[in-house]
Design goal:
This protein is of the alpha/beta class and 309 residues long. The protein has eleven helices and ten strands.
Amino acid sequence: MTEIVFRGPKDPKEFPHWRFQTLDIEHHPETASIWMNYREDAPQCYSLEMLVELLQLRDSLRALCASGRTSEFPFRYLVMAAKRPGVFSLGGDLATFAAAIRRQDLATLITYAHACVDLVYSYSQSLDLPIVTLCSVHGQCLGGALEAALAFDFIIAEENAMFGLPEVAFNTFPGMGAVTMLTRRVGSALTQQIIMSGQTYSGREMFELEVIDQITAPGGARAAAIEWMRETGDKKWRRRRAIAEARRRSHPITHDELIRITELWAECSARIEERDLRHMERLVRAQKRLIGATDRAAKAERSFESNSF
């Protein structure tokens, strides 16, 4: 059985110089925002290490606010973004899932799922802090990554970003918040359509379905997020925070609901058939090839830029 070892919060006195293995943290004074970026060299799925660090960051941000240091480092927006070209995140750690299913290790699936749900629930509540949360998406945002994004108050995405919940392809379902978060945004009928189809949608298509809030041109996610936060200052921020809170009150989400659904996911996933498991393992290999190709392309681009005059 795999266990999650929780870490205490970072020292508020060391902010904004917190260091993580999978995350880069930035403070943007002009927009009073903190950016949590998935590092370019980090696993592009939610590995156990990344989950532990995300939980630690959550607790660290709460400690930062409690310390009073936000007078020095204003904090009213939290932005989730990624630095790897072409990939926001590929979602759940399918290699861990497949290995646990092969050895019939339901406890590991549940432990992993509970950690994900703890994060998703925290995001859905804006970390219980007086902030607005924003997800800035480029590239592929699949499975658990989309579930995490949906828990944020607002989503901005590049029009050619790719969103999807592929779990139906191996006879399970997205169990870390998609059912709840999508239903809150677009209703139960469209939620079922998106989940059961397993279809991949562009950023523009997701905007037209009203799943996301704003689209921008390819390559423009970060600039669009900064401009969105800068827009009309305090007045717009207060209205956005009120809208986000109104959503929470009109369609309340409970931690218990998310736990019950994710335990259904774990039980369902543990019982998939051999052909479904082989399909999951093929997808793991395809993801590794995709990441390798993306890395090579990014390296070639950096080499070209460094040799250009």
